[in-house]
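Why does residue order matter? Because the sequence determines the fold. Keep that principle in mind as you read this record.
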Amino acid sequence: EGVSRRRRYFAAFVGGLAFYLPALQWIRVAHPAMYASWIGMSLYCSCYFVLALYLLRKLDGLTQWPLAFTVPVVWVALDYVRAHFPTGFPFLEPLGCYQLIGFGWYMLGYTQHATLPLLQLADLGGVYLLTALVAAFNGAAYEWIIRQPWLRRAFFRYPADLRVGFFREMWVSALATIAIMAGIAYGINRLNHPAFEVGPRVTAIQGDIPQDVKMEDTELLWGTYLKLSVNAAARADLIVWPETCWPAPWYDVPSGVEESTVDAGFLKVRKKHRDEIAFAAQQHWHTNVLLGLNRYEYVNSKVKTQYNAAVLVDATGIEKSRYDKMHLVPFGEYVPLGAYFPWLQSLTPYNHDYSCLPGEHYTRFPLQVGPRKYTFGVLICYEDSDPYLARQYVRTDPVDFLVNISNDGWFRGTEEHAQHLAICRVRAVETRRSVVRAVNTGISAFIDPDGRVVALPGDSWNESQVMEGTVSDKVKIDRRESFYAMTGDWLPAGCWGVLVIGHIAAVIRKRRRR
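Structure:
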């Protein structure tokens, strides 16, 4: 208690930097301009450590609740804000100020991606429930540690006597431990189910092309992925290309626009690129192919809008459906406030304006395999780090499986590859859907609805990154419903409710005492 407030919160901020600076260093690998993003993101995320300490101390002073309860409440509440701030909160949509944004990496719950029994809890409360359990355990452990006299004397400046309410806190800590054990029992029960239904055979192709080479050498990009897709065609109902790895754009005329009013040059380029895809499909693929590419939509002879898209073509090269990425990457796919501050363009990895518009529709891609028709949804790049997006594909008109296409060549050889795959495992359990990942430089994979990584292009996670190869398997189909997918983020909402109600109740109690 002898530490000043300034020192206390400064220490919390420094602690945040000590975590985020090394944890986020992979961002800088993308491009020299991304050093600013790395430092800026680290500074921003470290502020949540300060805010967490403030809220914990506030709750402790007002309510005397045990840390086994307050730590998960505060941590889940702030993780939710960090994943959606400033305009990504779904409740903003009716107000007309909703745009998908936020940073949903490094939640505590993702540390449990390989603990399958605990991971199953994600279908109840998403990654937030896993975060709550990890935080509760740590809060209980801290409460136990500071009660040990020799530890207090050796490491802490705490008085020798125990604080009033000690036994109550120990009971809550015991309940937290019981909750964790109950969670493990629930997970074991969820893992005990009949064998999954076997779905279509899908092949995800993975090139090993660094981002700077990918942008400059389109011949290498085309040759590498054409070779991989040709080799995969004979044994696949669907071939999946990674994000933006088809070297040519996809040109579209919006519905309702008469082609007679469209610039002839635009139509000529559209025909040329469509013919190239039709030729590849008829001569090489002979099956359905999901392409990751840039899509241009005609506005007028001088203007065309751009989207980061996935397009499904059949064995003849005819478009069956498409999806435009909704959750765009700031400074990667658009420049926030770029119209007002043009100099912000210098913080992007491009020497030209690469500004995309967000998509508006959750596309259900059709996949006909013999007499059976399947559907799947697509998450592009780090859209799989947003539980809200994945959830929409199973709430109404549920798809049979999910596909994640990404270009992690930006972060070649860094820990980002494994982190991205770990995050995707949680989405599989939250939705109870298999996820097929096709990633440039890796890690491509098949994840079953229990969160297991069942197929990789290499023998291990480490060998499956920064390599060229394919991964093929029959998709596992799960018909179970997910409580979390149906109900949404009830746990973060409850945590914020506890924070507000706890504060109000404490203020009322103080006034009554006076």
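The first strand starts at residue 197 and ends at 206.
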